[in-house]
Amino acid sequence: MLASPGAMSFSSRARTVSLACATVVLALLLSLGTMLVRQPVSPDILFLFLPNAAFLREQLLGGSLPLWNPLLLAGHPFLAELQTQVLYPPSLLFLLGSPERVLGPFLFAHLVWLGLGTWRLARYSGASRRAAVLAGLAVGLSPLAVEHYAHPNMLCGLSWVPWVWGSGRLLARRPNRRGMVLLGVLVACSVLAGSPELTLLALAGLGVCLWKRTRWTLGAVALGAGLSAATWIPFLELLVRSDRGAGIGTGEATSFALSPAEVLDLALPFVRFGADRTGAQSFQSVLFVGASILLLAAFGLWRRKGLAVVCVVLLVLALGDSGGLFTGFHRWVPGASLFRFPIKFLSPLPVLLALALASGYSAWERGRQPTTRRPGAVFAMVCLLGACGLAVADAGAGWAVSLAWVGLMGGGLLASRRLTPGRRGWAVAAVIVIECAVFQQGVGTLANRSGGPPCRPSPAFRPEGRVAYDIDWGRVDLAHRAEACEVGVPNANMAGGFAALEGFVVPAPAYVKRLVREEPERAAALLGASVVVIDDEAKRAAYPGEVLFQNGSYLALRLGRPGRAVLESGGERLEVEPEVDTPSRLAFVLPRGGERLTVRDAWFPGWEAEADGRPVPLLEAEGLRAIPLRGDERRVELHYRPGSFRTGLMVSLVSLAVLGLLCLRPGRRNIPMASR
């Protein structure tokens, strides 16, 4: 009997539904992949990393190494700031195009590198091939890891953590010169990536791996420190002379800590988005690690108690004052008072959970095959019923949807146990990929932080000198991005703003920073700003000047442009412009003799002055540079030649020579006992 044309068999419908689901999933994956290579958008990227990358690209293309940034504040060391990644080899990618176009692929490459490193680490830890692949996939797609797209230096630093740990395990198993050299290079790359917190965590894990191989460990760390000395030695000089040199108070250090209520966000994806998060930390808008990842990792953590203890310790440290451990760490551990933001201790969590996942899945592969799919169905049904019960009890849609999500993921994982080992690996990988793709596309901040045209300053915004930003930075967020772009805030001119960005190291003395915050109108005149951008009409009286541009909350005023330097002679003051104005060199031709030349740039060690070819002292005057004169000089030059960089460069060159000798020198061959 033939079926009617309008009828459709159950199997045909099933195939149709499966095809439709596969199409949706493929579209989601393509959308996720497209987002991962597009320009991410966040305040840190707009106001810090893109301007730094633009300045680095400009200087490298001009054939000079950027040691000093004359635009930030009243001038600021550039290479000494680890976040600028001046000597980080992958930073050369920015020479290929504008930073707005390169940043997305740059971060995506580090995400892939993170996955490859975790796969390698899992293999060295004894995981099977399938389990190691799943670990690499899990860490690369974990929402908690992808969230670091908003903090490029942290993603770069995190990408080297599994490589350092994996090489440490390999060296502990087979100690030799080649392994020591490889580990030293990886340690150097971790330092140059620009995240000192993650470098220290990587070294802490390295100590656990190599506690029995002291000689090899010290050799690798010494080589890595030598190779990266040209960056970290200037950084230490900047750190000692910065406002962090005296340490950070406990209250400021524990800002951006994980609250006890937010611990649930690690496992339940939608609770955070459906609840009032007033007063909660906002350093990371996503804390979710992935339900499928966490469920598989739980089995591995049960088997590997040491790994579970490490995860718990990092979680307690991330709680700040609430956990108690961070307070003692900050108070009693030498050097810990320089760091803040306890939530950064969560950064290695995706790698550790991926290792636990690999361990758990390896054991799962070797386990007995169940004869029914009921465990998965029962697990999913119980979670769905519980979610419905919470929704009926007005517990919040976030709780209900979160539990339903976890139930579906757990049900899918348990149901996959019926499959053969090969197909089971594909099924688990599909669950992880689908979950992360749906989350990132649906509610994850990656969807909001990706895309958008590159920020270009408005044609009406044409500053002639430094730009002062007297803005409430809390209002310059993604909602005001279009306005900020038109005013010209998120472009290279942002580096010209001397508004002290919260949390970033600035040169000592802190006089310039304090002056900007307490007396912005005086600071604008003292430092020589030609344009000031404000966000409040009430501030306009403090800045007499014509309106250059206005849009929304922002107002740009043109001020009278003072000279770059002031020549003092007999009680008179004469404004002077430089003949040569480059980041690391200034030259002034004086119209007449004088008693003192005050340059409107920040005083900082490393600057040297010459008057008519002879060295003259460089003094500090209200945080600026002052040069005493005899009265007959006609030419004054200033050069930035920091001794810390020269020392670090020499150490790095010597380390490179040692590295070359270690690589070229043939190793000892293992001679069989029978031939001796």
| CA(first)-CA(last) distance | 85 Å
Shape: globular
Helix content: 40-55%
**Strand share of the residues?**
5-15%
Secondary-structure class: alpha+beta
Count of separate DSSP helical elements:
23
Major pleated sheet: 5 strands, antiparallel
Keywords: Membrane, Transmembrane, Transmembrane helix
Transmembrane segments: 102-119, 131-150, 180-204, 216-235, 282-302, 309-333, 345-364, 376-393, 399-415, 427-447, 645-664
Protein name: Membrane protein YfhO
Compact description:
The chain crosses the membrane at residues 102-119, 131-150, 180-204, 216-235, 282-302, 309-333, 345-364, 376-393, 399-415, 427-447, 645-664. This protein has 23 helices and 16 strands.
Key features of this structure:
5-stranded antiparallel sheet; disordered N terminus; Membrane protein YfhO; membrane; disordered C terminus; 11% strand; alpha+beta; 23 helices; 16 strands; 676 residues; globular; transmembrane helix; transmembrane; Uncharacterised_YfhO
Structure characterization notes:
- With 676 residues, the chain is α+β, with helices and mostly antiparallel strands.
- Helices cover 49% and strands 11% of the residues.
- The chain has helices at 10-36, 43-61, 99-124, 129-141, 143-146, 152-173, 177-192, 196-209, 214-227, 229-240, 250-253, 271-274, 291-303, 305-318, 325-332, 349-366, 374-392, 397-415, 421-442, 481-487, 511-518, 520-527, 643-664, and strands at 68-69, 76-77, 466-470, 529-534, 546-551, 554-558, 565-569, 572-576, 580-582, 585-589, 596-602, 607-611, 614-616, 619-621, 624-628, 635-640.
- The protein has a five-stranded antiparallel sheet, with no helix packed on it.
- A hairpin with a 6-residue loop joins strand 1 and strand 2.
- Helix 4 packs antiparallel against helix 16 (349-366) and helix 13 packs across helix 16 (349-366).
- The longest helix has 27 residues, at 10-36.
- The termini are far apart.
